[in-house]
Amino acid sequence: MGLRNTSSRSTIVSIIGGKFTVRLADDSDDPNAVERELEKGPNKGKVVKELKYTALDGLITGARIHSGDYGDDLLLDMTDEGDEFTLQVPVESMYFGQIAKRMPNIDASLPILFGMGYDKERQTPFLFIKQNGESVHMKFTKAEPHDMPQPTKRKVQGKDKWDFTEQDNFLYEIACSWIYELNDTLAGVPDFVSDED
Question: What is the pLDDT of residues 107-119, one digit of tens each?
């Protein structure tokens, strides 16, 4: 896909509304731009311009967990034909789990495609990954969890609710280990958890 780089920094790609999204400058006149009103944060109510994509591909060149004002994000640095971009995925999102469950099956030496699909039955978007034209399957599933803890039911204010805390912690540790191994392979032992931009 190759996202165009407008400065010396890499382009940030977020997932918003089930699409890979790139925020544009306020004065952008890109005819493909879609306007969206921000619903939370200090800029609530502001209208921003964005480009939307259904797929993102390239080679992973680095990864880290970034702690910011709105929580932790998985950041995957990627390059494609000279364009550099960073896929930003909130750790507390379903997309993080969909990536982390596949991490042991990702070959970071090969180009990778992240795609967005839509499950009509569940009425929800989902993320999929391909390499060499083949799906990268999840190592940890409900049918074959391996070491992944299963959710447990808890009573919360008189109602049964599923508690995914142990599973979330497990997937976070899987991601941290994968990041460490990736960065160690690429450029020596890194500090994979960063509080800096």
Answer: 999 999 999 999 9
Query: Rounded distance, CA 121 to CA 10, Å?
Result: 36
DSSP string for 23-63? EPPTT---TT-EEEE--SSTTTT-EEEEEEESEEEEEEEEE
Q: How far apart are CA 52 and CA 13, in angstroms?
A: 10
| Global pTM exceeds 0.90 | no
The conformation of residue 158, written as its DSSP 8-state character, comes to T
Question: Helices H, strands E: what count in the chain?
Answer: 2, 13
Q: Is the dihedral of CA 7, 9, 15, 20 positive or negative?
A: positive
**Where are the extended beta strands (E) located within 149-188?**
152-156, 159-163
| CA 100 to centroid of chain Cα atoms | 9
